Amino acid sequence: MTETLMPFDDVLAAYDPALGLEVHVELNTASKMFCGCPAVFGGEPNAGVCPTCLGLPGAMPVVNGKAVESAIRIGLALNCQIAEWCRFARKNYFYPDMPKNFQTSQYDEPICFDGWMDVDVDGETFRVEIERAHMEEDTGKSLHVGGATGRIHGADHSLVDYNRAGIPLIEIVTRPILGAGERAPEVARAYVAQLRELIVALGVSEARMDQGNLRADVNLSLAPKGSGVLGTRTETKNVNSFRSVERAVRFEMQRHAAILSGGGSILQETRHWHEDTGITTSGREKSDAEDYRYFPEPDLVPVAPSREWVEELRGTLPENPTVRRARLQAEWGFSDLEMRDTVGAGALGLVEETIAEGAAPQAARKWWLGELARRSNEDGVDLVDLPITPADVARIQALVEDRTVNDKLARQVFEGVLAGEGTPDEVVEKRGLAVVSDDGALGAAVDNAIAANPDVAAKIRDGKVAAAGALIGAVMKEMRGQADAGRVRELILEKLAV
Ligand SMILES: [Zn+2]
Q1: Ligand 1 centroid to 95 CA: how many Å?
Q2: What is the pLDDT of residues 411-438, one digit of tens each?
């Protein structure tokens, strides 16, 4: 089914968007939320399970203290209040990959609430209010076998892996984000990107979106421009990259507007995001009054973090992101525009790590925002998910600086590393990319160039040193770009006795 979409500019002329984001963060604790099983997804299916996370009768859960600590640190970093006393609740629903037939979550007593995060979009700040951040457990994972798509439709049978069941999750929910207007897609993207940066700085999760450690659900509604009301929302589930968050918001804005302007109404439902086609499709209908029959979990004692502990944890928080950006900009000597582009591209942490690996700030910025940003656009993946590390980038820059490769050859080294051909040094070796700086080989090429361009050589002899560029070009051509240009220039001037 093809959706009718309204052109984006027309959407904004008639409607105000309201955004809402729910982000699930999978914590990197050693054990699960309520039992001692390893909190590691993957490996042999159903090897990391026990009576508690399988929901067997009589099994008793115990809260993972480290997970509570991570939840509080996330909450504090998001400027939230921390509950003095809160309980877990049972969220009752049936799903084959949820063995207890309820999810242990938090309902009306979240551990963190009433916070905010300032999000930078192109130098403008949007304050995103955080309604709550609560603790819960992940479900298992179903695998549908025998169909073409991996979805349940058309499958022969399904398998369930409970290794993931019970891994600690923190769900972070925003209040409706209003007033973003045309920037709503970018605000959504920037919020998720900045939240990920914060989670990484806290060290509480691997935070890989492509691995599902960090999953975003994107809520969107439109209201007639200036009406000040909230429209009916849709919730697009499990959007798994920053750019997809932006695209999903844009798509839903255009889809909602086309329906509303045609006199239709929006169905309140969850929707699936399709990375390949960039569209959303209908999932299941969802009403606000959906009855999960929540009730306080009777098998767990309440969580009552002492104020002393909360303050102690406040002392472990990483630098505030706004302060950090200002500090880094000063340290690196970036202009406002350079800094804004770096943050906007989601490259701040990558540039920082590349500099820590020894690259100069401008070189680190140049590669991540140039060559690598181009690749991430072409491949449709976020920079952080490209198969190259900051250490690789720093190494390639070092190879440029010690004249093993020039800028042009360095691009081929990037290509090789991204193609999985090995480390930068291995790629240089395998592809034979090192520039020639050996005087014997270069000298012969210089002699050829001088012989083939007597007029140019005469000019240089007469003192017009600038003309050497033409001879350097001829040598580079003969050496297929693999000559050390600096040394070639020196040889030309020596041979012509300037
Ligand atoms: Zn277990």
Answers
A1: 18
A2: 999 999 999 999 999 999 998 888 777 7
